[in-house]
Amino acid sequence: MSTRKRTGTEVRNHSTDIEDGYLPEKRSDIKGDEKNIAILFFLYLLQGIPIGLTAAIPMYLRNRGVSYRQQAEFSFAHWPFSLKLLWAPIVDSVFSTRFGRRKSWLVPTQYLIGFFMMFLSANVEHWLEGESAGTNGPSTGTLTAFFFCLNFLAATQDIAVDGWALTMLKRNNVGHASTCNSVGQTAGYFLGYVVFMGLESAEFCNAYLRSEPEPQGLVTLSGFLYFWGLVFLVTTTLVGLFKHEIPCREGNEPHDTDLGVKETYKLLWDIVRLPAVRTTIVVLLTSKIGFSACDAVTSLKLVDAGVPKEKLALIAIPLVPLQIILPLVLSKYTVGPRPMDVYLTAIPYRLLCGLIAALLVWITPSFVHDGSIPIHYYVMVIIVYGLHQVALYSMFVAVMAFFARISDPAVGGTYMTLLNTVANLGGNWPATVALWFVDGLTYKACSMAQDNNCSSESEKQACISQGGSCETVLDGYYVESAVCVVIGFLWLLWGKKRVNYLQSRGDNAWKVVRMRTR
């Protein structure tokens, strides 16, 4: 079940303030900061647009019959947000004082995103059809490279905006930056994925937005990219000309943001050297293997089974209230010294959701009749997705609370960035591997020749030439789903001891400043 990939920046720079004693005695008062909050919200919204569009492309690819191995190739386009720690110290440390520490990166990066989206608008349809490469299918490698670059720019914009948020707002309002991040990026993703998929669908537009049916939706992928590319260029110009950067407001910057490039990389290495952090990294990089088949493959399999891609995107709408309420409800259970108890409790339920999702895929063809699907099927899908979201958010809120508790407050921003980056990578690499192995685990046979397993293009053509067809005998998705659940429960047996050990460690096990002063 595909879900928005969270960057984890929502609490990265703000949750540590409480422990570090930075929060002032005054309560939040947004008077005088209204425009700054609006600007931050819009900048984060812009950041979510490329993420949403990247999530939409696999649906296009699946409708054009690309293999799951090619889907795995395209999944690398999501990786920049999991790797941005590699260049974040450069963005934080290299800048023009005259133009502004954050604007030095924000303005050129957003201009590049705008031009990049306009360039994509002129070529993406050709790449999806494979025309430019002279192939019979989508140019997956080209699409992967360009969307990787687009997300690389969006991740760089995220680094700059996160840093600017700490000085753009007054000290007593800096907590609102995390809200701008969470809500703004979600809104951008919603526009780039859900709204786009709906407006691009002729069926949806004819049913709900038009009085006379037409063969196409209200927008095209090229037109949508061009529009948002233009928005990036115009708004970046306005920000560059009229929004002035204040170097520092009321001591807003945490200690570690003034380090140079070399010092920041040295600090990251010192953090990684801590035994407790090394164990945490291993836990974060392996804990999501059990969910990879469900998270990465299920939505694509539902499209294969006949569920329209725009309907799957629109299912996210009724889940929005749940996504808003869940973190608020869960936060009271993650306050305290053992927030990861919630994390461990949610794992079996999320693994169970993987089995339910596989069952949902299996029964879906029985609900599809001449392209129409009954409403009660979608209700069932929403319920399954809702259960999945409860388990997913329980783990997300718990691990964010754990990061906030263990991060050394003297270097909180860098510490949280490291942990969030590893957590994101721990979700991305299993998803890529899961997509890669679906085809390899699938067994097919020719209906006219049992000794032909259709494992190569020549065998497929031979089957067709004999008047037969390649039929799936065993779908690799179901094999993966079962294997992932087994791995997930085995990991729980191993990981529970490690997580409990990490929660029992005192503050000294996580402090890096003492180590650096030796």
Structural topology:
Blueprint: H1 15-20, H2 34-63, H3 68-74, H4 80-83, H5 88-93, H6 103-129, H7 140-168, H8 176-200, H9 202-208, H10 221-242, H11 261-273, H12 275-286, H13 292-304, H14 309-314, H15 316-334, H16 340-363, H17 375-406, H18 412-441, E1 443-446, H19 457-465, E2 470-474, H20 476-504, H21 513-516
Antiparallel strand pairs: 1-2
Just give the CATH class of the largest domain: Mainly Alpha
The general outline is globular
What percent strand?
A: under 5%
Q: Mean pLDDT across all residues, rounded?
A: 86
Class per helix and strand makeup:
mainly alpha
Instruction: Compute the separation of the termini in Å.
Output: 48 Å
Could you state the order of secondary-structure elements as H and E?
HHHHHHHHHHHHHHHHHHEHEHH
Low-confidence stretches: 3-25, 250-255
Number of strands: 2
Question: By CATH's scheme, which homologous superfamily of the largest domain applies?
Answer: MFS general substrate transporter like domains
